[in-house]
Specification:
alpha/beta; Aminopeptidase; nine-stranded mixed sheet; 6 helices; globular
Length: 280
């Protein structure tokens, strides 16, 4: 894996080079093994937290982990194009607009013992800005090359905090063209519902049940690219014990193995449906 500046990453994308890199500030990774019309993203996978913020933070490492999306990158790691965050959403949230990306409070609890200085905020927001410069370049390259693009925006959520039955998978679609992409959305829901999971876990899937797809990552791409569908896909944390922080590798592996075949199947159907073309 290379360590590259933002400018070098964008240059490689523009030149259609294949590469795997970490940004020079170690805030995100990107892998492009082949230029195909689908992208996988895991913007909340990261757990890094700048050391200079530790003493001022009121949340423990576990409390931060609890609200992050661990292992979501691993679930799609076999795919040719992946972009994933390395930093915790508690430093800055890639799924929020810049104005609200640095939290003052988090889930009902003040995040900082004393308010962050403008310098501290600026350091975090620069990483947020850099990430989205790369996202823009990447989606522009894929949509420009293939006319259409689909992005699988992978997340997880804490299901035990709900006081009702919630689905294993939730797809948020409120901010995409639900009429134009209705078949693609429903096919993705059906694929997720048919997933076989170990430990007696039943895979259920619903649309706009627990979350509606209001994240900035989805909105940024949808507002800037007319022919790209972003599927905000949330898995309940059945793959870990969200109350202790223990991850169940056999469940993560089962998700990865299933998606290794079926995500590409869905992306192929999407591309063929809209353009009547295929890709290898």
């Amino acid at each position: 894996m290379l360590k590259l500046s933002n400018e070098e990453i964008i240059q490689k994308i523009t030149a259609e080079e294949t590469f795997e890199a970490v940004s020079e500030d170690y805030s995100f990774t990107i892998k492009i093994e082949n230029y195909l019309p689908y992208i996988c993203a895991a913007v909340h996978d990261g757990h890094q937290f700048r050391k200079e913020l530790w003493e001022n933070c009121t949340h423990t490492a576990y409390e931060r982990w609890y609200e992050e999306d661990p292992a979501t990158k691993q679930m799609v790691q076999s795919y040719p194009i992946i972009i994933a965050g390395l930093d915790s959403r508690f430093e800055y949230d890639l799924n929020r607009e810049p104005e609200t990306a640095v939290y003052t409070d988090a889930w009902g609890k003040p995040l900082w013992k004393t308010p962050l200085s403008e310098e501290m905020k600026k350091k975090s927001l620069q990483k947020h800005e850099n990430f989205y410069k790369v996202v823009r370049a990447l989606v522009a390259k894929i949509e420009g090359k293939f006319t259409m693009c689909i992005v699988y925006d992978m997340h997880s959520y804490n299901w035990k905090r709900w006081d009702r039955e919630v689905p294993t998978w939730n797809i948020g679609t409120k901010n995409v063209d639900q009429k134009r992409f209705q078949e693609d959305i429903e096919l993705w829901r059906t694929i997720l519902e048919k997933m076989s999971l170990p430990n007696g876990i039943q895979s259920t899937s619903k649309i706009n049940d627990t979350f509606q797809g209001n994240g900035y990552f989805l909105k940024f791409i949808t507002e800037n690219f007319e022919n790209t569908l972003v599927l905000a896909t949330e898995i309940a944390k059945v793959y870990c014990d969200e109350l202790t922080g223990v991850v169940f590798p056999e469940v993560v592996s089962a998700v990865e193995v299933y998606l290794k075949e079926h995500l590409k199947m869905h992306a192929t159907a999407y591309y063929q449906r809209h353009l009547n073309r295929s890709f290898s």
